[in-house]
Amino acid sequence: MSTETDESAALAPIAERAAAPAAVTVPTAGNLTWRPATREDVPVWLALRNLIARADAEPYVETAEEIEEIFDGAWRDMTRDSLLGFDADGTLVAWGYVASPPGDVTLVRAFTWGGVHPDRRREGIGRELLAWSIGRARQMLAESGKDVPARIAVFAEDNSPADKARLYERAGMQVRRYYSDLARPLAGPDAAPVPEVALSGSLRLAPWSEAFDEAARLAHNDAFRDHWGSQPQTREQWAERAGFAPQWSFLVVDDAPDVDALLASPDTDPETAAALRAGEPLVVGYELAGHYPEDFAVRGYSFGYTDILGARRAYRGRKAALAALAAGMRAFAADGMEYAALDVDTANPSGAHGLYASLGYTKTTGSRMLSIEL
């Protein structure tokens, strides 16, 4: 288990640790006009984000659906959590956005994102925009009222411009975690066979369906409870899944769980316990996939992407996650995808790296998370 909960007992209140400014300072560099983002800005915001992605050789592009989804969550306040900078001609030059997931329990986090048009870099815009983002993040953490360890974080690709890494480091952010994006061919001489996975006892592989989605959320929260930096997802967070491919997603269900044993276990969380008492289905493993055709040209091949994969801790060792993953890989191949892809925390405690290597996955790109720990 993480030590974050143990550490919270010795921490000062979050309102004190966050050191939140009474008001965030809007950038002045670059002589830009700043205002919050609105849904009507999605087209120009998308265009700028993808222009930056191309300039920085990022291994993906954004979609309008992904940006529009940001405006759907009632837990966000985009009037305070976003900032767009326009030049005198009304062209979007820079953007910033901060989010604090509502489901955080033992660690409260605020994530920052942003970017500056490549032609307007080295004017101080990025530095001041990051300062605004960190200030807003501090406000979010203070307002959460959650007296637990806190984190202000940003993600960066390993091949990001060196100036970006220095910008984060000068702001007091340090590298805390590394991630690898993996892929494996699904056909051809280099493709390892997809394993046939037999499930034992009352475990059953099933295609994803809306009827099992809440049970899958509960399984995910249990599976990732001992993963570094992970926190439970609320129903609203779970519903945000731009690019979700239900036809490529699979679940493993226990049709006859030992309810008494699970209820007696201290590892069974309250939401799962309530679902068991109500006779709800028990998902014990899952593979939820995404379809991102806009990225095919960037990567140079078509692929199906496993967004999240896991198994309940009480069911580890029973191949539930492997069975779901293999089913997803077969579905990718059946639809003509050339590769299967996913990403993994390099220090994943479940031995995922070894599993993926045995299935023929190899690293294609990498990223890292930098943070200020409070």
From TrEMBL:
It is an enzyme of class 2 (transferase). Its EC number is 2.3.-.-. Pfam families: Acetyltransf_1. InterPro entries: Acyl_CoA_acyltransferase, GNAT_dom, YpeA/RimI_acetyltransf. Residues 32-195 form the N-acetyltransferase domain. Keywords: Acyltransferase, Transferase. One of its GO terms (molecular function) is acyltransferase activity. Gene3D superfamilies: 3.40.630.30. This is GNAT family N-acetyltransferase.
